[in-house]
């Protein structure tokens, strides 16, 4: 769980609270200036835990049946985001041309979907062209990566293998550069 210490007296926890605080105190602002657009963006960042739980559940499935069920549930949040992106207009990001907190919030989970899709083919994102284009734009942003993408994917694969869940059998041997 992330924690941000402020003045050695306050500890902010939860990604959303930390992101909101930083957006209000450190330029540039990533939320829209318009109050209605900002509220809509906040609603979508509040949806991230639901999205993440569904999209990453396959990696934690203990059995093939659990995995199949988890994979079958992925189109529901994908469809919701596809519809939201249809309303957003032109541009590679959630709000069109400008990068936002919504983009920053979804990027890690979309990245993990792509990683898992390479471990064992899921193939859902191709059915959602706006979502796929948005996810690819996010993956292309350097700010999405805290360190080299290949290295992060290797760590992800290693963690799947270590969890020893059903999908771990599909992880080929990987070398992690950080070791």
Description:
The chain has 179 residues and is mostly helical. It has a single domain (31-170), classed as Glutathione S-transferase Yfyf (Class Pi), Chain A, domain 2, CATH 1.20.1050. Helix content is 56%, strand content 4%. The chain has eight helices and two strands, in the order ββαααααααα. It has helices at residues 15-25, 35-46, 48-56, 64-73, 75-86, 101-119, 129-140, 149-163; strands spanning 3-6, 10-13. It has a two-stranded antiparallel ribbon. It is globular and about 45 Å long. The two termini are 23 Å apart. Mean pLDDT is 92; it is low at 175-179.
Note the topology:
Elements: E1 3-6, E2 10-13, H1 15-25, H2 35-46, H3 48-56, H4 64-73, H5 75-86, H6 101-119, H7 129-140, H8 149-163
Antiparallel strand pairs: 1-2
Helix pairs in contact: 2-6, 3-6, 5-7
Q: What attributes characterize this protein structure?
A:
8 helices; 4% strand; disordered C terminus; Glutathione S-transferase Yfyf (Class Pi), Chain A, domain 2; mainly alpha; two-stranded antiparallel sheet; 179 residues
């Amino acid at each position: 769980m992330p924690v941000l210490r402020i003045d050695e007296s306050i500890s902010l926890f939860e990604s959303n609270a930390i992101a909101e605080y930083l957006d209000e105190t450190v330029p540039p602002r990533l939320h829209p200036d318009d109050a209605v657009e900002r509220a809509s963006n906040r609603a979508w960042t509040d949806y991230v835990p639901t999205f993440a739980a569904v999209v990453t559940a396959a990696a934690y499935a203990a059995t093939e049946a659990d995995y199949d069920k988890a994979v079958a549930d992925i189109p529901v949040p994908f469809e919701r985001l596809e519809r939201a992106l249809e309303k957003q207009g032109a541009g590679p990001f959630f709000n069109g041309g400008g990068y936002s907190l919504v983009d920053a919030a979804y990027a890690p989970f979309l990245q993990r979907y792509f990683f898992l899709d390479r471990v064992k083919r899921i193939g859902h994102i191709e059915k959602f062209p706006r979502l796929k284009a948005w996810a690819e734009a996010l993956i292309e942003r350097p700010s999405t990566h805290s360190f080299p993408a290949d290295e992060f994917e290797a760590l992800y694969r290693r963690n799947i293998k270590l969890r020893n869940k059903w999908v771990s059998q599909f992880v080929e041997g990987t070398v992690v550069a950080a070791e």
